[in-house]
Amino acid sequence: MRTCKSSLLPGSLLGILLIAATVSGCETDPVENSGPELSGTFIPEANKKFRYKVETEGDVATATQWITERMDSSGIAVFNVHTDFQSDGFLITMDNRMFSLAGKTYTELKVPDAWQMSVNLLNQMPDTKVTKAELFGFPAFITMDNPIRDGSVLEKVGSPEQGQRLSYVSHGEAASIEQVITLEPGTATVETIEVPAGSFVCNRFSYVNRQKITTTTKDNQYTGDGEEKITVWMAHGVGMVKQQSASELVSFMPLPTGEIRKVTTSTTSTTTLEQITQ
Question: Residues 231, 22, 130, 120: is their CA dihedral positive or negative?
């Protein structure tokens, strides 16, 4: 059974995964059998669905995650992990490739939704047009040591920076925006955690995503920065059991008038595994 849907992005995309992902896709039933490759890794177990409660600044959303496909690449089993994120009537579908290699679980970093949104918003402003949009630093992966033990490492593999460069013309004047994300690695401590879905022995990783946004106009250059501090509990055969994040970001955004406004945002979020079903 396959039901394709398109989706819109709500006002704020709550943090369900370790990474950002695409905003459209197809719902697919879980794969029937993915073999032994998932044992002892943080890839979610096949034939099961994992339902999460996502709480952000008083708002509550749900997310359901499962494996929809197994692909073999150069002798490595690569799994597609699909997530349906639902909030205030909006459905966002996310797909991420995961695999295990040399004692680590790899999760592919995707382009953040907000980056494509910034292109769309600029093009919707009066007398404004994006003339160039390019990504850099992809592909890249977040990796986690598979052993559940103190000192296991979470880090990024690939270019140290992922980002987007935009050039645009607003009211006849050329301008640009560059957005860059870096990751500060973290190490694990072992914890047994109780959530509504049960009790799990986890690696508790803490790490930091840092962001820098530079907006350049004819007369000035504006630089904002921010960081997201993330703590995530990961269990074998499940993946994420719980995640807590707190972010602060200072950015400079173009207005429809062509002027630049300083924007400061602070957000906290908690994601908790509520239920595991067949």
Answer: negative
Around Cβ 265, how many Cβ atoms within 10 Å?
11
Do residues 233 and 204 touch, judged by C-beta distance below 8 A?
Answer: yes
pLDDT for res 35 = 57
- pLDDT reading at 205 higher than 90: yes
Strand partners, 257: none
Model-level pTM? 0.85
Distance CA 76, CA 89 (A): 38
User: What backbone torsions phi and psi does residue 156 show, to the nearest 5 degrees?
Assistant: -110, 140
pLDDT, mean of residues 152-163: 96
Within 10 angstroms of residue 183's Cβ, the number of other Cβ atoms is 21
Tokens 């072992």, located at residue: 190
Q: Are 217 and 198 spatial neighbours (Cβ–Cβ below 8 Å)?
A: no
Q: What is the tally of structural domains in the chain?
A: 1
Range of the domain at 46: 2-277
Residue 127 φ/ψ, nearest 5 degrees: 55, 40
Q: What confidence score (pLDDT) does residue 110 get?
A: 82
- Taking a C-beta distance cutoff of 8 angstroms, is the pair 275, 65 a contact? no
With a cut of 60, say whether residue 6 has pLDDT above it. no
Peptide bond into 139 cis (omega under 30): yes
Q: Is 99 exposed, middle or buried (0-12, 13-18, 19+ CB in 10 A)?
A: buried
Task: With beta carbons less than 8 A apart as the criterion, state whether 207 and 228 touch.
Answer: no
Q: Residue 30: its pLDDT value, please?
A: 66
